[in-house]
Amino acid sequence: MFDIDSGHRAPRTPRAPRTGRTLQAGRADRTGAAETGRSLAFLAERARAGVPSAARLVPVVPALGALLPDGALRRGQTVVVNGAGARGAGQLGGAGGAPGGGAAGAVSLVLALLAGPTTAGAWAAVLGVPGLGAIAARDLGVHLPHLVLVPDPGHLWPELAATLIDGVDIVAVRPATPPGPVVARRMAARARDRRTVLIVLPGRSAWPEPPDVCLTVGPCRWEGIEAGAGHLGRREVVVATTGRRAGTGRRHTLWLPSSDGGVDPGEG
Amino acid sequence: MLERLLVVHCPELSREDSGVSRRAFLRVVRAVEDVCPWVTPVRPGVCALPARGPARYFGGETALVDVVAETIRSLGAGYGTAGIGIADGLFAALLAAQDGLVVPKRGTAAFLAPFPLSMLGNADLATALARLGIDTLGAFAALPARHVFGRFGTEGVAGHDIATARSGELPGLRVHPPRARTHHRVPADPDMPDMPVDPDMPVDPDMPADPDMPADHAVPIPLPPESSQPGFWGGTDDAGVRARWAVERVIERIGDHGVVTTGIRGGRGPADQVRFAPWDGPGRSPRPLSTEEPWPGRLPPPAPTLVHADPLPAAVVDAREEHVAVSGRGLLTTPPDRLSIAGRPWAAITLWAGPWPAEERWWSGSRRRVARMQVVTGDHAYVLITEHASWWVEATYD
Question: 0.90 exceeded by the pTM?
């Protein structure tokens, strides 16, 4: 019951028909013509646009909508969030446990992603991020009573993540040990099966399974601080969206955090 | 490394439905508490305590067992015969107590090896392993962990961790006694004075009143918060119920303190402002406290996303590789140029601000003079704290 190797495949998402014609041919003889025409037109429109049903989407704060292919998180989806310089020799390199993880901005972006869903009543869990800043989380919009933290899961992280995927709407995990391909594939399948959003912060280790969406924080620029004066004010980051479901790469500029600690769309 | 635990097992006092049995067991717990701290009830008739400190105090683990046994004997007749044992982790310590054994340090896996697999309380797992000819914990422990995960999943890993003495906790080992009386609330943890106590907290309607139970015996044992709120879940939504269910399974696996919620309180440094409280259930978060007050010396927003409970040692030098310090007047002795954290390669400091001196109470509780500074090295930004010319990374803007 605990295992992520549950032995059965995730049920296939019913695919939206590709064209309106196929739909009409299949259904028209069973329902009233006029009504069918209208609802089929709607369905066909939706199928063409590739818009998933609203029930499968988890809204995020407006500033982040543009980053995501569906304009929101989608239930069952795996999202990988890489920080700036994730592949370079970061100042605080090392496996995900090290602060910064050699990848700036990833934790802020994950917290910002959790803001919309937790405010709307969803539950979120963050595994493997010790010392998560509660004030930063609150200022980014996270509803703290709906945030559960497992700061130090150690080598148990796959098991505990799998357990949380069963019951929590969004599970963000920073692997304490490099994830193997089997673990990654099963975890993604379990998230799909349980309709849970799985967010992975791979840090310096890679996530071996191609994610639905991959958000990579690019160069960061701080404002408000200069040599010996001012203080850290706001940070401009460029976030690139890639991944299986994301189509061609897109780049968006964000203030993360903005000067009040929240997240705002950038001017760029 | 598992904690050395001493377990006291009173088989005659394990009847949960008997007030006499419960009261007698509580007297045993209190008596043991008089000689050793941190006694926790595990289930009716069984309590455990960390053995390392008391063993050192009493001159060895065998001596500690004698002291505890003598303490229980001195209560007089009517408490039955207590089995006392010491081993690594709760699972092995429970077995050791039944045999009255002190399992030597690091000998726990060997001690467990001859026990049958049924001890793990997972019939499916035992059946599956029996087909492979594996019928003892020792034979199970000999399987490589990664294969166990692939073949038997996480329940298999849980059992395997027990068999190899990497874990002592298994779901079902701890059975928290129900709260005895509705009007005796568990006393608040003195270290967490801000934990909200809800006067309308729902009570467990199934708990039978026990007329022969004196009031002062009602709640002698502080229980973990999540077990102290029976019936709380009644009004929560479906998502909350599912979340609780998942989180409680995580707690069963790694213990009360492995799962936390965050709260916010006043204070100057980032670490002072964040409080982690053990998971207390959906809808309950430590009350946010006066975060909007303009604390002198408090860093202006935005707040760092990572606050290091143990600040990381750092070194800050100027362009001529001389160490940077903060003078008695609160000024930097020389402009900072490069930063190295925990002995890692130097990174050029591109932007910095501060220092902001602060005089505050820190870990020790004594007053100390510290100063803080914000620095940016390329993509990364940190809060540094300095005292006596030493630097630490206190927080990171990840």
Answer: no
